[in-house]
Design goal:
The chain has 203 residues and is of the alpha+beta class. It contains six helices and eight strands, in the order H-E-E-H-E-E-E-E-H-E-H-H-E-H.
Length: 203
């Protein structure tokens, strides 16, 4: 019987990066240098493409108000492309007139790590990034104190639960406490919901 050939995603997503994870503030991240090192060690022919604007030749794009970069990572002929806004240290999009070459370079390197993650390496670190900010409808009575917790409550059966279930099932090799830690950045998780997450993790 022939041994099953793993896909690029299966190979990269199964690689442990625990010893390469760094921490900035309250967030864990994998630096572009570490991500690129692991990628090239496994796929020496992997390539990075930093896209340039076809008219200006600049290595960023703009709508006249803000700017973003476009980076592609090619592994075994498959390209994953990431678009990343050029942001300040608070992760707020910079207005075009304040964008510097240093800001562009930082965005390109971060976008490189994200494009590599789309191939599977360290993908779990980006979980929840695309979850919309929680909003509340205005009411007649306003609480005198404002909550600083902008996470949304995770309910079983919701659209968010479907995303979380997929994430848990695809990261069964990770420890349960690590999975809950990642999810807790964007969700308020009750004991009953955590119990269901634990069941999925054991499937």
């Amino acid at each position: 019987m022939k041994a099953e050939i793993k896909s690029v995603f299966q190979t990269l997503s199964s690689i442990s990066i625990k010893d390469k994870i760094e921490r900035k503030g309250n967030l864990d991240y994998l630096s572009w240098a570490n991500a690129w090192s692991v990628l090239k060690a496994n796929y020496p022919s992997a390539e990075r493409k930093v896209y340039e604007h076809e008219h200006t030749g600049f290595n960023y794009f703009t709508d006249g108000k803000s700017a973003w970069v476009k980076v592609g990572i090619v592994v075994d002929g498959l390209e994953c492309i990431d678009y990343l806004p050029i942001m300040d240290f608070r992760n707020n999009s910079l207005p075009l007139e304040k964008v510097t070459s240093t800001d562009v370079n930082k965005a390109i390197q971060r976008s490189t790590a994200k494009a590599i993650a789309m191939h599977g390496l360290g993908l779990s670190l980006w979980t929840g990034e695309d979850v919309p900010e929680m909003t509340t409808e205005s009411t007649k009575s306003v609480s005198p104190t404002k909550s600083t917790d902008d996470r949304r409550t995770l309910d079983i059966g919701s659209d968010d639960w479907a995303k979380v279930s997929t994430y848990v099932l695809s990261n069964k090799d990770s420890k349960m406490d690590k999975i809950v830690q990642q999810l807790s950045r964007k969700y308020i998780i009750s004991a009953s919901v955590q119990s269901e997450i634990n069941k999925l993790h054991k499937v």
